[in-house]
Structure formats: structure tokens, C-alpha cells
Amino acid sequence: MTLRDYGTAARLGLVAAVAVFGLSGCGKSHDRGALWKVVHGRCAVDAYHKPCTVYDEKDGYALLKDQTGRGQYLVIPTQKVPGVEDPVLLKPETPNYFAEAWGERAHVAQSYGFEIPDSHLSMAINSRPGRTQDQLHIHLDCLTSYARAELDKNMITEDWSLVSLYGHPYRARIVASLEPSPFRVIAADDMSIHTLVITPAKHGGFILLDDMAHVLDHGSGEELQDHECHLDDPHHKTMIMDGMDMGQHPNGMM
Fold first, then answer.
1. How far apart, in whole angstroms, are the C-alpha atoms of residue 97 and residue 90?
2. Which of 17, 210, 164, 182 is nearest to 89 (CA)?
3. Is the peptide bond before 129 cis (omega within 30 degrees of 0)?
4. Euclidean distance between the first and final Cα of the chain, in Å?
5. pLDDT in tens, the chain (254 residues)
6. Residues 6+ away with beta carbon under 8 Å from 248
7. Which of 79, 247, 222, 52 has its CA nearest to residue 140?
8. Of 47, 87, 139, 247, which has the fewest CB atoms closer than 10 Å, so is most exposed?
9. How much is the pTM?
10. Which residue, among 85, 78, 75, 86, has the nearest Cα to 122 in the 3D structure?
């Protein structure tokens, strides 16, 4: 299957999934505006910008510790941006939220309490079908050991190629830097079905991963992240040496 065929199949598959499975993200009782209420209604007005760790009005983003995981953080625009599909993300004057997120990566290791090399970190944004909140947020956390190993063994270049991760077909390519914004690198007609994941490449630059929601793939690139950071957790490494590996991915892979 060519990359063009893959894109067409993904769009058709998403339509079928919506019709058959009703991909609405969450139930009616779920508050999809909760994240915006925290950032806009609390961090923006609190004298110390709590509960946000960082609230940078000048650069237009906030950093919030996620409730899931020991070291996961969310980078969130301080303006209303529903998600990956918002056309404002393709404008050159819009803050580069991925670059801002990468600049805040030291907070992840601080929360875990141990050193984490950049190559073990990642940033992910879920597609509209694969997210639970309608305020753009970039997940900043560790990569799973399985994803890191698979990426390292694949010959990823500056041209798009396909990489299978947890059974999902990601397009992958190397970008020299986070400029321009990865949103502008993808710039698809329908950005709502795209999920983007970024992690450092083995020999410099970054690997940009792009999957599209289709059929049973909700387009949640967050699946490549380990919210316990088993790759670098000294306690987990001790358990592996003792023959007790408790770091299995929910998908059944490491």
C-alpha cells in the first residue's frame, strides 16, 4: 500500500467507524471542556497561576501536571484551540506548541526523580476521535521501550515511510528541528483524524510520526508513551535483573 493509498483508506475507514461504532470519544456525562476550565478559569486568574506549573502568557502556553502518571505533563495553549484540527495551528504567527513543550521537558525527569535522556522522551497529540478533551494539549512523557526499539531498528529518513507500532501504521520521517511547527509539516486537508508523535532521532533531529484514525484505530499517539517511564526507572531495572518485569504495555507489548 502506498502512502497515498493509506491516507485514502484511513479517511474511508474513519467514516465507516463513525457509522458503525459511533466514535464520539466519551459519554454524555464527560466534560470535554474540563481542561480549558482549569487553564483559563484557574491558572489564568490565580496570582501564582496554580495549578499550572508554568503559565506563559507572552508565549501563549501553559504547562500542567497530568493526573495520569508520575511525570506526565500537558502543554496547553492559553487561547482557545479545540485540537489538532484548528486551522490556527497552520498559521506562521501561532506559537510553536511542540517547540514550547520540548523546552519544558526537564520537568518530566524532575517529577520522576531520576535522569531521563532526551532520546527516551516524546511528545504526542491525539486525533479528535482519540482524545477526551476539546482543548489542544500535547502529552509530554517517556516513550515505551518497545516504541524506542522499533524506531531505532527502522531505516527512517527525511522521506516518509511506514512503520508499524502496536499494530497501527504510522508514517515516519526525520525532521532536522521543530521549526517549522510539525502541524505545518503535516498540513493535511482534514487534520482532525491525525495523531502526531515526536521523539529524538538516533543520529540527530527528530522523528515525526503521523497516524490517521480509521476503523478501530482511534488515532491516539499517546499509546506510544509510557506514563511510568520503565525505560529509566531504577526500580524497574532492578526487577528486570531479578526476572520480574512488571512494565508490560497495555497492548501486551513492551
1. 12
2. 182
3. no
4. 27
5. 445 454 544 444 433 333 322 333 333 457 999 999 999 999 999 999 999 999 999 999 999 999 999 999 999 999 999 999 999 999 999 999 999 999 999 999 999 999 999 999 999 999 999 999 999 999 999 999 999 999 999 999 999 999 999 999 999 999 999 999 999 999 999 999 999 999 999 999 999 999 999 888 889 999 999 999 999 999 876 655 555 444 445 443 33
6. 254
7. 222
8. 47
9. 0.83
10. 75
CA-CA distance, 99 to 243, in Å (whole number)? 39
Closest by Cα among 199, 65, 202, 74 to 138: 74
Spatial distance between the Cα atoms of 14 and 157, rounded to a whole number of angstroms: 28
Phi first, then psi, for residue 40 (nearest 5°) are -85, -40
Using CA atoms, how far apart are residues 125 and 101, in angstroms rounded to an integer?
11
Per DSSP, the residues of 68-104 read: SSSS-EEEEESS---STT-GGGGSTTS--HHHHHHHT
Task: Give the type of residue at 116.
Answer: I
Q: Which residue in the block uniquely carries the three cell numbers 515525526?
A: 208
